[in-house]
Amino acid sequence: MSILTAGFIDRLRQSERAKQYITNADKYLEAIGYTEHGFRHAEIVSTTAYRILKELGYPEEEALLAQIAGYLHDIGNMLGRMHHNRIGALLAKDILEELELSLSDVTRVMMAIIGHEEDEGVIVPDPVGAALLIADKSDVHRSRVRNPLSVSEDIHDRVNFAATNSELVIKKGNGSNIAGTIQLMVTIDTRISQVIDYFEIFLSRMNASRKAARILNCNFHLYINNTRMA
User: Fold this and answer.
1) What is the mean pLDDT of residues 124-137?
2) Rounded-to-integer distance, Cα 118 and Cα 207, Å
3) Which of 43, 53, 83, 104 is the most exposed place for a label (fewest CB within 10 A)?
């Protein structure tokens, strides 16, 4: 019997190694001025990656692998921002082997974590990695800003703080050649940040999300303040 069940996710959350890695990765990013990348971000990305595959009709085990990858995807930041995706994959390997996940499943999680960094321009053609990337890039929200009083000083903080709501909507297709549509709905308070600021820092992320959606045989659309942008 496979150990890859919902109970495995609970065991992962209780892993002291995983807790330490997530905590210290977030501390490092806080020290260099990045938005929140702690347990809040890990849980949101994890849950969203699972939901993407489930709502598109993928098998439970693949959705669970996306959930695992989402929870661990940023732990490599503990050892520095550069190549954090590759470092994170290796750190995740230790955690998952300790929890006795199969080698084939560990490998898929590692590849998904490596592929979540859009700057490398390579997206592994695997549903697990595609769901992780979209889930990660969709987490834009003011709750990620550590110091709301200083948002005018940094465009990333300003755009995130201006995002009063963000929601990923998955619509499964009706038997056509397209499996479904993934829509990122963002509400931006333009008194804080203009829409153009969003595109300045998130354009590469949206392009990566579009490529990842194609792997899932889906269209990807971005809506800002109920207006379709892409």
Assistant:
1) 95
2) 9
3) 104
